[in-house]
Amino acid sequence: MSEVLGFSSWASVAVAHCAGAHGLVLSHSQGWKLVYSGDTRPCAALAAAGAGATLLIHEATFEAGLGHHARAKGHSTLQEALQVANDMGAYRTVLTHFSQRYPRLPRGFPADARPWSQRPLLAVDGAVVRFSLLPRLPGLMPAVAAALEEIEEGDRQQQQQQQQQQQQQQHAE
């Protein structure tokens, strides 16, 4: 199978989540390396196994202020995931598995980070990331962040209008 797909190696790495949880490190004969964290706390073993990754896909369930929840539930904060990417020396990082409490861009997401190598990408359901586009993808993040902020602002305005209408109806009754 590895000859057909071109993988030169793969490793399942035990991560800090629940019993039996593993991350995955895939190395390809063309020289790229893909690392998938799965659900985990920051994990030195995964960072070591994935050293020099072309693409790290890491969960970032909680924002920084909720580190206590992340520790209690075996997940990572956004900032912890970025630190794993830095420790690993990952070329690009896609952050995923955001908590349902963040209907939009999580607070602290560094969409404008400098240098570009520290600007993560945001996973979106159904997205396909082509390795050939990795050099250019960080340039999209400021526009994505702005679009999500506009949607969030529109949602807030709609909620305020609905509340005002409900208050007006209550006063009319």
TrEMBL record:
The keyword Metal-binding applies. InterPro entries: Metallo-B-lactamas, RibonucZ/Hydroxyglut_hydro, RNZ2-like. Residues 22-98 form the Metallo-beta-lactamase domain. It is an enzyme of class 3 (hydrolase). It catalyses: Endonucleolytic cleavage of RNA, removing extra 3' nucleotides from tRNA precursor, generating 3' termini of tRNAs. A 3'-hydroxy group is left at the tRNA terminus and a 5'-phosphoryl group is left at the trailer molecule. Pfam families: Lactamase_B_2. Keywords: Endonuclease, Hydrolase, Metal-binding, Nuclease, tRNA processing, Zinc. Its cofactor is Zn(2+). Its EC number is 3.1.26.11. Belongs to the RNase Z family. This is ribonuclease Z. It comes from Tetradesmus obliquus (Green alga). The lineage of its organism: Eukaryota, Viridiplantae, Chlorophyta, core chlorophytes, Chlorophyceae.
